[in-house]
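Reviewers asked in the last cycle whether our approach scales beyond single polypeptides. To address this, we selected a multi-component target totalling 804 residues and predicted its structure end to end. The input consisted of the following lines:
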Amino acid sequence: MDVTFPDDLVLDEGGRIVLLVMDGLGGLPHPDSGLTELEAAATPNLDRLAAGASLGMSLPVDIGVTPGSGPGHLGLFGYDPVRYNIGRGVLSALGVGFDLRPGDVAVRLNLATLDADGNVADRRAGRPSDQENARLVGMLQEAVPRMRGAEVFFASEKEHRVVLILRGRELSPHLGDTDPQQTGVPPHRVEPLAKGAEDTAAILQDVLDAIRETLRDEPVANAVLARGIDAYEPYPGFPERFHLRARAIARYPMYRGVARLVGMEPVVVTDGEEATVAALEDGFTDYDFHFIHFKAMDSRGEDGDFAAKVAAIERVDALLPRVEALGPDVLVVTGDHSTPWSMKAHSWHPVPILIASACARPRRDAVFGEASCMVGELGTFPAAKIMSLALAHARRLSKFGA
Amino acid sequence: MDVTFPDDLVLDEGGRIVLLVMDGLGGLPHPDSGLTELEAAATPNLDRLAAGASLGMSLPVDIGVTPGSGPGHLGLFGYDPVRYNIGRGVLSALGVGFDLRPGDVAVRLNLATLDADGNVADRRAGRPSDQENARLVGMLQEAVPRMRGAEVFFASEKEHRVVLILRGRELSPHLGDTDPQQTGVPPHRVEPLAKGAEDTAAILQDVLDAIRETLRDEPVANAVLARGIDAYEPYPGFPERFHLRARAIARYPMYRGVARLVGMEPVVVTDGEEATVAALEDGFTDYDFHFIHFKAMDSRGEDGDFAAKVAAIERVDALLPRVEALGPDVLVVTGDHSTPWSMKAHSWHPVPILIASACARPRRDAVFGEASCMVGELGTFPAAKIMSLALAHARRLSKFGA
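The resulting structure, written as structure tokens, was:
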């Protein structure tokens, strides 16, 4: 499901593209109204755009497959998410700006709380502040700078999220998670998942043991849980493939990480949704392609809070006129996956998408919602084809064949 | 996206199929009405057919990819247009009936006008008459019969269009166009695009220089521009693959060329749309499959003339009863691509398709238009699968598996 047009069709010039991602946008109906979160939300700006746009449903990975955030975004960026699958550790390391080198093994750590019996009591250590996170990471870096010939690096992400990087010779990324994904049980030990991974498994286990020793007197964050272990291999670059000066505007490091992985320039946003749009406005004409990310739909969906997810959607809708005022030639609005409030989790359901441009084929009575997008001109199609359409609408693809 | 059923499912007998192609059929809405060219046209016959037909949208090459006429028609004929991509020169040579041999390199030439500084003043030399074209081609053939061991052939297409064929040993088709696609600049020199193409590039450049010398005293057509350079390799035959005695009825040589490439018998039509239908009526029962081509929708779309494209669609609609009166078992009506009036060019948008047969699954309120076809039973599907459906509706495919 990769982008399949021949590379030599891509032109050097054309329109400016904004890819606006509402994380976890797709949903499921509320039993009282029969309306999804997006359908229930008052979205006058999205509905006005939809009435003049090409609509459809984006399929993140494949029918029935629920994507993580990494595959969800790789698809949106035009990369087959199965072929280019990558662990969360690498995405987080890139997201916090760590200078990964090919072969580095990156691991996502959760700061966690173990009880007196060594069982997990809180998988997120009470969600510490970013300052507390930075203090603990400083302790760990000082206590565990190397392990058996491998260099060890720690970096703060947000709240309970930490990244661990191992750098050394012939490290293997084929290691199992230690996060048991539940409380009341002890963390798993590091298991090698492939032949030749035994040495790296032993190194990582020793690092985790040393971390436990370092944190033993902490009142809350007295351990870590490891997951998303993967090695860094550079990807074919987005700017080179699509001939686009591209940037990524996102508040959460993870999303900047995926974008950096494919060669977009990350723009750090520290405040909320207004600040995200302000970052888009700043230097807008210096880029051909802007990826802009809004997170709250996904978080409130995972909370199972219908009304809060509706409100999150409405906040993005209210900011849309500022995006439109910048005059992008192509405005794509979609999500990386669905996060239905009733499931409290990511899901496999296709995600509404609109592509607004002068070449759209709209349906006048359309609004932006699942039922309306299902009968849109784009049909249900792989997310990895969105970039083909974005380039086409921007008049950045030449004709194929005589 | 090739036809994917096993070859041994194809039966030797079954219904008669007409594939009626309205070139550039798909469109985009007029802002006043919100209706596309096809939706705005008064098409009582197509609408009556649609109400009893299977409807859908045909995707010519892939999502977001704009096809040229060659790939657009190869798809309709059941050939993956990416795998079987071919240069316009070969299509034109086949279209004018030139007896191409494997390895021949064919080049599309435009008769053109250069100014006193050698810059392109008119890429089409004022669109000369076919008689003038024939006179110039005669001059060229006499002046340049060979070049450095290669035989050189010229053939008239229409107006400013000429085909050049090089025949010799180990010729390479990997040569760049000399047509700069704009005025006010000189033609490009012939560039080799692959290793081993240097000799052929030099031969073609010498041919073009000799042409320039021959035409130097012509008042208008004093040069040529070369493009669409490709070598001829025979395709797997359409009659053999699909067990169909097949013919192609088209006024423009280009479309007969694509059909000949896959082994259909070309039927030359010199007059307009009525003559095209008359050619279909003549000897109808001698064939199992008829490809019939109408061009005007595409031309008027490229002109950007909404009303004229609407009128072109209505003229084809008015001729439909004569096609129906022949009693084909399967009548497929679609286009090779969209040519929206508002873009004045081919585009990537899927194309409405109807398949009328006794096995159709219709929607009673359906009409033939983009919005109606989008929600038809066929969905949006690759053009290269149309032949699978045509054969199935003609009861020419046996059951797969026990």
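Chain A touches chain B through 30 residues (CB under 8 Å). We regard this as preliminary and will revisit it once experimental data from Aim 1 are available.
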